[in-house]
């Protein structure tokens, strides 16, 4: 059937510029989205899909729909009276120097730095005490800042470097190889690399992963068979050697290759889903060496973290839901021969190595605790951290004399510390100079009961002295899936929110990894409703304890968190005033048919599995649960037109359903970022605009005609 966009209504805006207690609604007549008679049948049940045509990201009709929706949305946003004030404040707070932890390669020390408002971080380097010089400036990759640096890998001696670029936020990458000393490009650019790092084998070449380019749209067509290649320098990419993934027996959706620090072993990890992997090892010093299986099933997550000669150190959750480290000899590496090195504890392990030591970071109710071990498995010390929050780092090569780590929490900007491995002492290396005083804010951790009685932790951050009177604008943010752990970290956007008297609350829902594999598995497949119940209970806790009320509550999440928001707002539209689903997985019956979506089946299951799974997915799928005649919260759906991880059709179809069926005056808008993807590499300028629009939309729909904290505006204007 021909897809036609119906005639657009004229948009009429009614707006009061006065600083009244209640803003006049901005009345919007939405573009009418055409319907098609598409019907799928699952186990005898027919399901209509009237907006199927929006899945075609290459069609002129979809392009026209995007333009009209953006015209409507920005017509609304531009009439929010304090949108410019928010943007200006975000720019001012964002404009401070940001520095990454240094790392040594060859004769140079490298580090990432952003002067303040640069769209992309710049890679600098310095030799000894010489003045740093620019090594790579991604801000020169494209005029609008939408081409980003997506990876950088050096040979062990630092002589060569290869880096990946992403154009328009796409997951498809290009690889460029440099003579690191001269910074000159040494050969042709490699193309069509996806979901891959670059791992060097000496100075001869490197391993990378990709898929065959799909037929149809490269942004949405299914990619199902990952392959590992070896690129030998001086040869054409078409001559690259296929290492693994080329046969039906080796078919996996995600395959990664890495070489040990001593260049002795090639390691291959192969997965059919986002949880569980097979593991193989090959001795690169043996010309006839073959890939030997270490783990032949996908029942656990496993990776080699280091080696000493033929002794491999493996991080695994095999028979250890909270992870442990084991050792085995590479000549006989099967799991039956593994020996515990650092045993499992009651807390989740995230280890690193550097300077000749192991560092074990544990999550204790989502808060970091770190211990140092030697290579005999003897605990040397607990590393006393600068405060309560999240730590990252403690990684490097075995002969590094000093290591670095960063520390942050929800109200403390990240600072970097230089660590001395032998004595365990550290000192502040770099602290940001930012126009934000952490001492004025507080974070508290609470535990609340979900629907089934499960205790769920939540960290709530806000300005000291805030009165808990039910009238505080509150942003409830969560993820709840894929074993991802939300640990405390500072965000400039959230700092601006809290400056305005906002509360920022983050619950650690089931489906995440905060309490290991059991916590993750309690929120997957037919237990996914636990995740939504946990989120709903978090909102109810905040309201019951007068942090906020329905009128001042907004819920936000991205990707799997976008699904969380979509499911929660369709199940409990009465619970919140504003909903902010970003790049969300909204069509649970078809998600697995796009790009690498089939790999998410461990968490979700698919509508093709069986009737029970189909009915369960249909029961919460946001696109399929928008009900006519329902008053939904004010909703701003956000996505990118180049998102090839969670394709924008999810958001397109959800927005179309909302606009057709919403009753009342709450707006249901979609903001579509052009030439942007899933989020990584988004230019700073675009990020600031997004925050200004999201926060402006949120506060305006909570009833504000001016920003709550005018004193901050006055200070930064002066």
CATH class of the domain at 40-91 and 436-715: Alpha Beta
Helix-strand makeup class: alpha+beta
Number of helices: 11
Helix content class: 10-25%
Which superfamily, in CATH terms, is the homologous superfamily of the domain at 40-91 and 436-715? Alpha/Beta hydrolase fold, catalytic domain
Largest sheet: 8 strands, mixed
Q: What is the second-level CATH architecture of the domain at 40-91 and 436-715?
A: 3-Layer(aba) Sandwich
- For the biggest β-sheet, the strand order reads 33-34-36-35-37-38-39-40
Mean pLDDT: 91
* Number of DSSP E strands: 40
Query: What is the gyration radius calculated from CA atoms?
Result: 26 Å
CATH topology of the domain at 40-91 and 436-715: Rossmann fold
Distance between the termini: 60 Å
The backbone outline, from C-alpha atoms, is: globular
Regions with pLDDT < 50 over 5+ consecutive residues?
1-20, 714-718
User: Which strand-content bin applies to the residues?
Assistant: 25-35%
GO molecular function, one term: serine-type endopeptidase activity
Protein name: prolyl oligopeptidase
Family: Belongs to the peptidase S9A family.
Keywords: Hydrolase, Periplasm, Protease, Serine protease, Signal
């Amino acid at each position: 059937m021909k897809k036609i966009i119906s005639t657009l209504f004229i948009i009429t805006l009614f707006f009061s510029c006065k600083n009244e207690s209640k803003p006049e609604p901005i009345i919007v007549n939405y573009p009418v989205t055409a319907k098609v008679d598409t019907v799928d049948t699952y186990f005898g049940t027919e399901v209509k899909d009237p907006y199927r045509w929006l899945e075609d990201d290459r069609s002129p009709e979809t392009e026209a729909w995007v333009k009209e929706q953006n015209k409507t949305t920005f017509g609304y946003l531009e009439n929010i009276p304090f949108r410019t004030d928010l943007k200006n404040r975000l720019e001012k707070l964002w404009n401070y120097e940001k520095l990454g932890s240094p790392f040594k390669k060859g004769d140079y020390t490298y580090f990432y730095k952003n002067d303040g408002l640069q769209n992309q971080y710049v890679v600098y380097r310095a030799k000894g005490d010489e003045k740093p010089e620019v090594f790579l400036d991604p801000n020169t990759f494209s005029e609008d800042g939408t081409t980003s640096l997506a990876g950088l890998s050096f040979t062990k001696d630092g002589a060569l470097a290869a880096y990946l670029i992403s154009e328009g936020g796409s997951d498809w990458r290009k690889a460029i190889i440099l003579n690191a000393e001269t910074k000159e490009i040494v050969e042709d650019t490699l193309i069509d690399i996806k979901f891959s790092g670059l791992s060097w084998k000496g100075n001869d070449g490197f391993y990378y992963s990709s898929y065959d380019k799909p037929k149809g749209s490269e942004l949405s067509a299914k990619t199902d068979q990952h392959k590992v290649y070896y690129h030998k320098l001086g040869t054409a990419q078409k001559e690259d050697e296929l290492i693994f993934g080329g046969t039906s027996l080796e078919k996996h959706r995600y395959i990664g290759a890495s070489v040990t620090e001593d260049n002795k072993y090639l390691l291959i990890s192969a997965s059919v889903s986002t949880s569980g992997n097979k593991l193989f090892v090959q001795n690169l010093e043996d010309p006839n060496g073959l890939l030997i299986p270490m783990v032949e099933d996908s029942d656990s997550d496993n990776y080699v973290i280091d080696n000493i000669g033929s002794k491999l150190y493996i991080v695994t959750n095999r028979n250890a839901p909270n992870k442990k480290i084991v050792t085995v000899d590479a000549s006989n590496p099967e799991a039956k021969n593994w020996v515990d090195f650092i045993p499992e504890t009651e807390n989740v392990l995230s280890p690193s190595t550097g300077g000749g030591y192991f560092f074990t970071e544990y999550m204790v109710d989502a808060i970091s605790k770190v211990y140092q071990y030697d290579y005999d498995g003897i605990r040397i010390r607990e590393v006393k951290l600068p405060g309560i929050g999240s730590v990252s780092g403690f990684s490097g090569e075995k002969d590094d004399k000093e290591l670095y780590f960063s520390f942050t929490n929800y109200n403390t900007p990240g600072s970097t510390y230089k660590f001395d491995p032998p004595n365990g002492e550290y000192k502040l290396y770099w602290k940001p100079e930012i126009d934000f005083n952490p001492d004025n804010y507080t974070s508290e951790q609470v535990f609340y009961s979900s629907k089934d009685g499960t205790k769920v932790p939540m960290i709530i951050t806000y300005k000291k002295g805030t009165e808990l009177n039910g009238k505080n604008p509150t942003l409830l943010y969560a993820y709840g899936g894929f074993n991802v752990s939300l640990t405390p970290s500072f965000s400039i956007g959230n700092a601006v929110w809290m400056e305005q008297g906002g509360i920022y609350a983050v619950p650690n829902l089931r489906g995440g990894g905060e309490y290991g594999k059991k916590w993750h598995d309690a929120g997957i497949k037919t237990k996914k409703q636990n995740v939504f119940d946990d989120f709903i209970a978090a909102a109810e806790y905040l309201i019951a304890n007068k942090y906020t009320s329905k009128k001042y509550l907004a819920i936000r999440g991205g990707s799997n968190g976008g699904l969380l928001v979509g499911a929660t707002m369709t199940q409990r539209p009465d619970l919140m005033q504003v909903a902010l689903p970003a790049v969300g997985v909204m069509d649970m019956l078809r998600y697995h048919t796009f790009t690498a979506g089939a790999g998410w089946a461990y968490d979700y299951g698919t509508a093709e599995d069986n009737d029970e799974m189909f009915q369960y997915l249909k029961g919460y799928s946001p696109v399929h649960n928008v009900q006519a005649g329902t008053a939904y919260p004010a909703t701003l759906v956000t996505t990118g037109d180049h998102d090839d991880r969670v394709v924008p059709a999810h958001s397109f179809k959800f927005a179309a359903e909302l606009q057709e069926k919403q009753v009342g005056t709450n707006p249901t808008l979609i903001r579509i970022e052009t030439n942007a993807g899933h989020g990584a590499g988004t230019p700073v300028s675009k990020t600031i605009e997004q925050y200004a629009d999201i926060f402006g939309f949120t506060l305006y729909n909570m009833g504000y005609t001016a920003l709550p904290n005018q004193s901050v505006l006055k200070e930064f204007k002066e």
